[in-house]
């Protein structure tokens, strides 16, 4: 089994994930602002208070999940970029080693 790694493609994928995380973060911030703009339309009576409490709990949990997903996507992008750099460094080191060996053998 052969595995080939393209450091440039890995790096591009890392940048793409970083861009996706940025756009997701912007969309999430816009959604939060829009949701806050509605105020508390359910009122302050007993039923409205129950609806408001449920809304607050559910939206807090949902935004916590969204924030975690955003952090994970951004971290994956950084990790792919780091992986690409390490592969490129290792490849350069191996190439230098073989070039040195070839020179020492007179080829």
Helices and strands in order:
Layout: H1 7-37, H2 46-104
Helix pairs in contact: 1-2
The assigned structural class equals mainly alpha
Query: Which regions contain 5 or more consecutive residues with pLDDT less than 50?
Result: none
* SSE sequence, one letter per element: HH
Tell me, rounded to a whole number, the average pLDDT.
Answer: 94
As a percent range, the share of helical residues equals over 70%
- What general outline do the C-alpha atoms trace? rod-shaped
The rounded distance between the terminal residues' Cα atoms is 30 Å
| Beta-strand percent range | under 5%
- How much is the radius of gyration in Å? 25 Å
User: Total number of helical segments?
Assistant: 2
Q: Note the main sheet.
A: none
Total DSSP E strands: 0
Keywords, please?
mainly alpha
Describe what this molecule looks like in 3D.
With 107 residues, the protein is mainly alpha-helical. Helix content is 84%, strand content 0%. It is built from 2 helices and no strands. Helix 1 (7-37) packs antiparallel against helix 2. The longest helix is centred in the last third of the chain and has 59 residues, at 46-104. The chain is rod-shaped, with a radius of gyration of 25 Å.
């Amino acid at each position: 089994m052969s595995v080939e790694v393209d450091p440039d493609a890995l790096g591009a994928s890392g940048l793409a994930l970083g861009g996706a995380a940025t756009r997701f973060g912007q969309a999430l911030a816009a959604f939060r602002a829009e949701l806050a703009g509605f105020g508390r339309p359910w009122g302050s009576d007993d039923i409205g208070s129950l609806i408001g409490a449920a809304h607050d709990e559910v939206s807090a949990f949902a935004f916590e999940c969204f924030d975690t997903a955003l952090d994970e996507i951004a971290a994956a992008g950084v990790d792919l970029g780091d992986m690409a750099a390490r592969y490129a460094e290792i490849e350069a080191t191996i190439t230098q080693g073989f070039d040195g060996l070839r020179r020492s053998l007179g080829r």
